[in-house]
Amino acid sequence: MSAIALATLAAVASGLSLPDYKKVIQPADYPVWALLKTETTAAVVEFYIDLEGRVYGCKLLGNVGSRKLAGELCRITTKRKVGPARLADGTATHGYIKDLVRMWTAGGPSDVARAKLASDLEFTVKSEALSGEKLEGGLIVAVGTDGAVLAASTTRAASPA
What we know:
Blueprint: E1 2-12, H1 32-36, E2 41-49, E3 55-65, H2 67-77, E4 85-86, E5 92-93, E6 95-103, H3 110-114, E7 121-125, E8 135-143, E9 149-156
């Protein structure tokens, strides 16, 4: 048996591919005041993305490091446009993503550098092929307007260094 930890639960309102949200925070977004004070943060953030790929909602769930800098993340992200979530046939749909966003400079506090997103979900898979191996990744869930799960897909995280 193998334990699988899903570090990011990404529920897409009716889709099977996630928005390309990784570009939502860029190095140029680091506020000058935070650079001058060498403030850093690692924050757990929820993003809500519309059919056109605009981040229309953002919620800070918690952080390590500067609370003020973490608060800036939502102000920055709600100005961005990323690719929308997509159904298996390519149709754009609304998306939801929960992830850890880090704004950190070299020499910053080690607790910010070491911060990790806690698993939303853990389950055990009975498989000889995965015997004893721990896998980390994401879960994409397609949910209908009635709340029923229509489909699900997984993503495998990069192997930790």
